Amino acid sequence: MESGAGAASTPRALPYFVASSQLLGLTVVAMTGAWLGLYRGGIAWEGALQFNVHPLCMVIGLVFLQGDALLVYRVFRNEAKRTTKVLHGLLHVFAFVIALVGLVAVFDYHKKEGYADLYSLHSWCGILVFALYFVQWTVGFSFFLFPGASFSLRSRYRPQHVFFGATIFLLSVGTALLGLKEALLFKLGADYSKFEPEGVLANTLGLLLVCFGVLVLYILTPAEWKRPPQAEEQALSMDFKTLTEGDSPSSQ
Amino acid sequence: MESGAGAASTPRALPYFVASSQLLGLTVVAMTGAWLGLYRGGIAWEGALQFNVHPLCMVIGLVFLQGDALLVYRVFRNEAKRTTKVLHGLLHVFAFVIALVGLVAVFDYHKKEGYADLYSLHSWCGILVFALYFVQWTVGFSFFLFPGASFSLRSRYRPQHVFFGATIFLLSVGTALLGLKEALLFKLGADYSKFEPEGVLANTLGLLLVCFGVLVLYILTPAEWKRPPQAEEQALSMDFKTLTEGDSPSSQ
């Protein structure tokens, strides 16, 4: 393993990539608002407009905020690890609560209008994402923020947490695309094929959602962009490493 | 960097994950065939059934074979690197050709039936995936199989190739889900919400596609599951590293 520098400098290209991701994320949120405002009558908690709360909340919570929560460890590189962790956990809480409002909105709307629930691929993927997100947050909290878990347990769980974090985020983006497609086909029907302005706007929104997902994943990938351990964390980690390796030589 | 062993042993869990991925991939292909056979009248190059060539080819080519091409370096760990590379490139060629047949099928079908092309989010994502796949293969071939590229150029391009390879694969899975959703909504319409058997089967197929994508990504992720360099490759790489690092100290 390469030796990590203490208070490390930020890799040169990273700020540009992070800035682009924020610009793209805000564009996606604004464009979702524009789509709902221009072609779907805007947003309200009552009547037919209640449905529109769903896509807006999901894009803000499960796409934009979830994506930003993943980027916290790349952006805050020299802050204390605990502060960064708390911010990561809090952003996920905000994302989850906003997504929950979006979920309540669509179920409530379906109930009032007498529509069936959970029959479509979008809804199946959505419920899967939501359940996985809740489990991931709860398990993450108990391992990394709750003081009980041992260092070796944390080290073994960390790669799983990172993998499933990225996976749930990508699934969220995919589910958003399925929902967008469903909304377009239900309303436009055969007119979708006539390149209606709403269809073109929503397709563009779909491609931008994909770009945001790919950009966040791209920022998460390079090893040299990962948050370097601070000097004191590194000393601690070496102590624990020696301890745990000495502790159980036959463990897998 | 950890020192890689020469002829390395296979990590204990890897074969089980690879076997599960193959089982899942074949299930996805079989289920696509079953869906088309049971509810869409089967497959033919003439008439209305020509459309059905499209989903089957895409699932075989851009999902199953593309996924397997990514796994080649995890499965063939002790074979010569060149052999593994050629297999990786060849599997991608097969995937590309099969996908091309799927693409021709749908454009030909649209033309015969007088349907519009490239208006939906599925088609936009599909064309994007197809173009990226072609560019990725061509650039990959020129860097890694064509003998011209220097060692340092290959090393710098490799992480990009790996990242975009995984991204294009995930985009392919996402595009397949969008297509499945489109096919369901066009045919079932309001009956989709009545839990028609076709809808339930296709939703399940959608979830299995997601599982296959996640499983392939999971196998690609752990550093210790990556193909270790063979003894002679490592010696060569050290020589080149010294050479190239000494060669251009001021390069980025």
From TrEMBL, chains A, B:
The chain crosses the membrane at residues 16-38, 58-76, 88-107, 127-149, 161-180, 200-220. The keyword Magnesium does not apply. Transmembrane reductase that uses ascorbate as an electron donor in the cytoplasm and transfers electrons across membranes to reduce monodehydro-L-ascorbate radical in the lumen of secretory vesicles. It is therefore involved the regeneration and homeostasis within secretory vesicles of ascorbate which in turn provides reducing equivalents needed to support the activity of intravesicular enzymes. Residues 20-221 form the Cytochrome b561 domain. It comes from Propithecus coquereli (Coquerel's sifaka). GO terms for cellular component: chromaffin granule membrane; lysosomal membrane. It is found in: Cytoplasmic vesicle, Secretory vesicle, Chromaffin granule membrane. CDD domains: Cyt_b561_CYB561. It catalyses: monodehydro-L-ascorbate radical(out) + L-ascorbate(in) = monodehydro-L-ascorbate radical(in) + L-ascorbate(out). InterPro entries: CYB561/CYBRD1-like, Cyt_b561/ferric_Rdtase_TM. This is Transmembrane ascorbate-dependent reductase CYB561. GO terms for molecular function: metal ion binding; oxidoreductase activity. Its main location: membrane. It holds the Pfam family Cytochrom_B561. It is a multi-pass membrane protein.
